[in-house]
Specification:
Heat Shock Protein 90, 3 domains, 14 strands, histidine kinase, His_kinase_dom
């Protein structure tokens, strides 16, 4: 700024913005504002407190918005009367920060008013217009919030249904295994009755219990991650060998229990050890020992099933907790892959990892492919909000492939030196060019009436661009649609400066 001078009513009247004002109104403006001259450079910066209202008298200004961590020029004009800065200060929301950055490209003159003074002038001189604009702003904001909440509840409902389906499977497995285990324990109690009638001596029982413990260890070892995992052919061959051994040794129904022994990791070598023990015990027959060990293996396998199903339920609950971020602070450093994983878990009932089973409700398989750059560092973010972004984009991608099936690809990588790039891609029909530029607009939707609110991508855009100072864009051709999210790897200077529900307005043209 090089100079400040009083304004002249006639000069203001020459601007289209003020040409219809009365002499009294122009006098009020001149009494409360001034003319300021600026040399090339910034006059207001996006995100900083909105303190002044600017009207260009002569010169040239350029307007820009932050996108992907860069300042992108959105408008450049020398038309007299264009305005910028705190031009929404009089609305019900009371503009708190500048919506865009403005700088002059050559020496320029502006009419300048302090934001509170400009707001009071508008309320005093144009009360009806201000009331109408307030009503529009408040009504739009209220509608947007209501639909926003509904969008979140709908997404939560869909995801809850999927999570319930996933939880039902391990819960049912636990119920079945517990019921079977109760029966096995009952049978084991009957075996203990042999002690009462002296069928088995204490020495024989001690040997069988010792053998039982060794078999239990073998079952646990065979089921561990480092245990031996047999192919279908190897399993069949081992079952044949065990069945032949049991049949050769006169075990009634040996072929029926052979699969249980093989599943527990007990082969013919183990059976020979059992036979050796019974040969040394006059009071215990091989048949009794085999039945004793069979009950042991069955019980251990059932307990393994209960343990694995319980772990699965715990993992699903942990993923749901990660997704909802109920245990997290609003702003923190997080692993983007953890956030993506927890969101994808919520869609697991609609996806398949290898295309081998149907992952959609209407019979069309949707395959999931993950191409993740694990070298990406953790990012400063609002984890719960980013999960909402992934949810909205993935839900749209799955909807696009609902009729024909396809592949959902989630890809991560570094973008430049200071950005993380997340791509969510689908093989659906694509987004037509004529509507591509509108898909991030509030209330715009291509879904049938009643199915979409048109706020999912608008919400995602606000979270990524406004709240995280990142960028959200779409590239689409038939068979390859990509939503690209760019997020800064460093903490934004003022993370709360731009709330998600602020209006996304850059200023205004003369029209």
């Amino acid at each position: 700024m090089t100079a400040t001078t009083p304004c002249e009513p006639d000069e203001l009247r020459s601007l289209f913005l003020f040409e219809a004002l009365t002499d009294e109104q122009l006098a009020v403006l001149c009494a409360n504002g001034c003319i300021e001259e600026y040399q090339p450079g910034p006059i207001c910066v996006e995100g900083e407190p909105a303190t002044c209202f600017y009207v260009l008298i002569e010169g040239e200004l350029a307007m820009s918005k932050l996108s992907g961590g860069q300042d992108i020029e959105t408008n450049r004009t020398s038309q007299r009367g264009v305005y910028a800065g705190a031009w929404r200060a009089f609305t019900g929301g009371k503009q708190k920060t500048y919506d865009a950055s403005v700088h002059v490209t050559k020496p320029s003159r502006f009419f300048v008013m302090d934001a509170p003074v400009f707001a009071q002038f508008m309320r005093d001189q144009f009360p009806m217009a201000v009331h109408l604009l307030d009503g529009i702003a408040v009504g739009t904001d209220r509608t947007r919030r209501i639909i926003d909440n509904r969008e979140k509840l709908l997404a939560l409902g869909r995801l809850s249904a999927g999570l319930t389906h996933q939880l039902n499977n391990p819960a049912a497995a636990i119920s079945r295994a517990a019921s079977d285990l109760r029966e096995r324990v009952a049978n084991m109690r009957h075996k203990l009755a042999m002690l009462a009638d002296g069928t088995i001596t204490p020495e024989a029982l001690s040997a069988l219990v010792h053998l039982q413990e060794r078999v239990a260890e073998q079952v646990a070892k065979s089921g561990s991650p480092g245990g031996q995992h047999l192919s279908a052919l190897e399993t069949s061959d081992r079952e044949d060998a065990v069945g032949d051994w049991l049949e050769d040794h006169g075990i009634d129904g040996g072929w029926d229990i052979a699969p249980t022994f093989v599943e527990g990791g007990v082969d013919t070598d183990w059976l020979e050890r059992i036979s050796t023990v019974t040969d040394e015990l006059a009071s215990a027959t091989l048949e009794q020992a085999i039945r004793w060990i069979n009950y042991t293996i069955e019980s251990e396998l059932l307990m393994n099933q209960i343990l694995e199903a319980s772990k699965r339920i715990s993992a699903l609950v942990a993923d749901a907790k990660q997704y909802s971020q109920l245990d997290r602070a609003p702003f923190q450093v997080a692993n983007v892959h953890d956030l993506l994983h927890s969101t994808l878990v919520m869609f697991a009932d609609r996806l398949t990892k290898d295309g081998s089973k149907d992952g959609s409700k209407d019979g069309k398989a949707i395959n999931l492919v993950k191409e993740w750059d694990r070298s990406l560092p953790e990012i400063p973010c609002y984890p719960g909000d980013l999960n909402q972004v992934w949810t909205n984009i993935i839900d749209n991608a799955l909807a696009a492939m609902r009729d024909q099936g396809g592949t959902l690809t989630v890809r991560t990588c570094r973008y430049g030196d200071n950005m993380a790039r997340v791509e969510i891609c689908d093989t659906g029909p694509g987004v037509p060019a004529e509507i591509r530029e509108h898909i991030f607009e509030p209330f715009f939707t291509t879904k049938p009436f009643g199915e979409g609110t048109g706020l999912g991508l608008d919400l995602a855009f606000n979270i990524v661009v406004k709240k995280h100072r990142g960028d959200l864009r779409v590239e689409s051709v038939p068979g390859d649609t990509r939503f690209i999210v760019l997020l800064p790897l460093e903490k934004p200077p003022v993370p709360d400066a731009a709330a998600v529900d602020d209006d996304d307005l850059d200023g205004a043209d003369p029209e």
